[in-house]
Amino acid sequence: MSQKVFEPGITAGRLDADAYAAQFSDLHPPLDVHEALVAADRCYFCHDAPCITACPTDIDIPLFIRQIATGTPDAAAKTILSQNILGGMCARVCPTEQLCEQACVREIAEGKPVKIGELQRYATDHLQQQGKHPFVRADPTGKRVAVVGAGPAGLSCAHRLAMLGHEVVVHDARPKPGGLNEYGIATYKTPNGFAQAEVDWLLQIGGITMKTGSSLGADITLDALRRDFDAVFLAIGLGGVNALGAEGEDKGGVKDAVDFISDLRQADDMGAVPIGRDVVVIGGGMTAIDAAVQAKLLGALNVTLVYRRGRDRMNASVFEQDLAASKGVRIVTHAEPVAVIGNGAVREIEFEYVDDNLVGSGQMLRLAADQVFKAIGQTLQGDALPELEGRKIRVDGTGRTSVQSVWAGGDCASGGDDLTVTAVAEGRDAALDIHMVLMG
Q1: Are 261 and 251 within 8 A, CB to CB?
Q2: Fold classification of 17-25+241-377 (topology level)
């Protein structure tokens, strides 16, 4: 493959054309029928199952596994989707090793949990691949609700509202719906266009109008939405990225990790995505891991992930950390960026080692770098929003904001833990509260 040079050292087409399909193949190949039955047979079907409590969407996990074990995967899918309409995506990206599987009695007794996530994928894929939608709309209520943001929270809210009989209009600033499911998750976790296929399947419920390229503030306003609709649900996510606070971070080759992941997710040809020889990723969350692993898969020679605290404080799960290490990513902890060094474009980045309280030690570390990805958290963007709590929209337990007839959920709202599965739960619960209010 011919190489196209961008910034010095940053090159597209580092690998042979045939290598990209193998590098970005499905991280967890799906279970076949026999494997699913064997995995389901390990479940104890606990009466007061701790895995249900550990699931943010309260899926009846023993029930759906029993349904798989008895040869009714479509019934299992309906059990899952009645609580989590994005159960297919969550089965792929949810940190089950920290949630339901960590709580599994098998994990506690044997150190080997039931494969809950893989069984959930087996059931939901079985249903969705047939094009079946297991829910029908209630009679029309005559009420109209605006949803701003077509990510997990917005889609979950819109689907539940539509199922309850309301008319829903979803606005999203991007050209495609899906939010982080479409733009912000590693390609190897959701290959073959799964995110868009799941959105298309979800919209089969009817009653949902999707308006892409429609941004809050630029194309629509909250006041206008409140005037034209009976309720509004804000699921706008976090559009801004925190600055490094390091000297020279405006140099060429320094980029937001979320933009890198988005570019890769939308690329028709992986070989056309430029990558450096020496890549440094700064951060300790899932975005940082996704960026670091994908940089390595694209052919970067050296990839180093640097985090200012210890591994035990990283938001990325131990599984994700181990995945990065298995792909050749070096992880450096207790180091903060001080300066980006280079003449116009980055050539090195300097860090200072810090203790657990982020107090500098005076010891420095320099890493060669022709590309630096920032993954140090995102910030809320937008004017004329409801009252904030810290840097997010303040909400109560049902998603109500300080503004009458306006709810919020997902990453933009206070109280969540920035997981896809939590956003789905918040969207669903807000929809139920909106329905209760609108129907008196």
Answers
A1: no
A2: FAD/NAD(P)-binding domain (3.50.50)
